[in-house]
Amino acid sequence: MEPFELKKDLERLRKNGKDDETVEVKSWGRLPSSKGSKTFWESLSAFANTNGGYILLGLSEPDFTPVEGFDSQASIQFIRAGLNPQDRDALKVEPVPHHEIHKMTVDGAEVVLVSVSPLAVNGPCYYLPVGIINGSFKRVGDEDRKLSHLEIYELQNRFVQTKTDRNPVPDSSINDLNNQLVASFKQRLVETGSRSLGTDDNWLLRKNITTPIGELTIAGLLALGSYPQQFFPRVIIDVAVHPGLHKSPIGTSIRFEDRKICEGNLLEMVQEAMTAIKRNLRVRRVVEGLSGKDVLEIPEEVLREALANAVLHRDYSELAQNEAIHVDIYKDRVEITSPGGLPNGKRPESILDGYSEPRNRVLSRILMDIPWTHEVQGVLAESNGTGVPRMFNLMREAGLPVPNFKIDISSVTVELSRHGLLDTQTNEWLVEKLGSDFSNTQGIALVLAKELGAVTPRDLRNQTGHDSEDMRSLLDALVDRGVLNQNSQNQYQLATSSVNVTQSEQEVLDAINKTTPVTIREIATKTGKTASSLRPLLRGLVEAGLVVATAPPSSRNRAYLKA
């Protein structure tokens, strides 16, 4: 949770004319009305159940100026009474989140700031007078929304190790197992010398695939079953291809360009989903050494890891069994959403810590011995904490943004960008410069040179993870091919034979120097041109190697130097 900065945060609220996802303002008088009191506790519940936040008391909306007659001391006493666990009669929320209460001054008047931290214990934090079902909230934008039954369940089990995957599946038996997959599974146990096999026939019980009375466990059925959907109809992977950048509204003529419902055991579902995804992504030919191969626009290993994580870490509790894993393919990205928030108290900022914290421990152990087909080496889930860091590295190496994880109370979504070297315009430009057979790293080097005006070995190392000296050798090779020019020890620019500039471009060049970076606004002031008319001129000058940009195009800090 970011620290509250009164000047900056108040300026943002006044500019937007409304609250936001981190700050809620209440316009109390001396003391809140009955409705004002209720909405205060709802907001406190929402912040505690989500990512924390701040409640600012004593300002009016939408101008956020001090309320006449606001009594800061009386308000503080009122809040402290409602957050005192020792006084059950006055207590308003439970469990009480960590909080701090401060007096502050706005435009010469006292206001009260209540800082609410995210819950560090099982929740949800709810408004006691109306009960847990009607009194539990989450923060969405500037709104406090009631939690669903599944969200309440997720928060009730946020910091405990659940044992859902050990539960028996009523009316199931070993007759519901996929015999071929069981044989492959057992063969791997033999090859790895697993002690679970023993000297008798009880190895299925020892691996928690069956229960003592012969029924299958949830983990056993999902991992090794012939058709788990007989018992869990909605435990599927739903792959949908959308025609645009967002889901089409109901009633539109074309909602999906393609759709595949993937069923079977977890391995079969992941394999079917991979086939459906690959069918709807672009491929291109890349060179590796003396040979070439077809490469998917998003690395296959990244997609497999994301799908394996989804089936391994999703929630299989009774409430979540109605939720499918959704794979949504848009024109610019692929989103994979699985039911269930982060398990066992794991926080979003710790996703890359390399520490595996499986929600489903029995299932995790079984999937470590479920082999992929002959086309792919390894097992369905390694469960050693290296998968997500590996995804990040592979996306960088492919010239793509790193995965974006969107964490909700009852779901986790990983967003994989399709905008990399296979973007149609970028790929056509690279083919023009390098020919049809170029490596990802060569492509990344040219894209960086184009966007920044110059690329360094360090830039390439940061983007790809490769050694700086190896990247210097690659850049030198591109210089030898006449694709890049080296203008200093470390900087490489796109090569230009002879550049003829227009009068407008020359005016822009005259406004830029080699020592002090200038922004587009400063160039606009010097030339009398608008920012919108300058952008294509600057883009052309950067591509021609006459100007160097100090930051990527999307950065607010982008400025320009003469090359």
Automatic annotation (TrEMBL):
Schlafen AlbA-2 domain residues: 20-147
Lineage: Bacteria, Bacillati, Actinomycetota, Actinomycetes, Mycobacteriales
Domain of life: Bacteria
Classification via InterPro entries: RecG_C_sf, Schlafen_AlbA_2_dom, Schlafen_AlbA_2_dom_sf, Tscrpt_reg_IclR_N, WH-like_DNA-bd_sf, WH_DNA-bd_sf
Protein name: ATPase
Pfam families: HATPase_c_4 (PF13749), HTH_IclR (PF09339), SLFN_AlbA_2 (PF04326)
Domain HTH iclR-type: 507-548
Biological processes per GO annotation: regulation of DNA-templated transcription
Originating species: Corynebacterium glutamicum (Brevibacterium saccharolyticum)
GO molecular function, one term: DNA binding
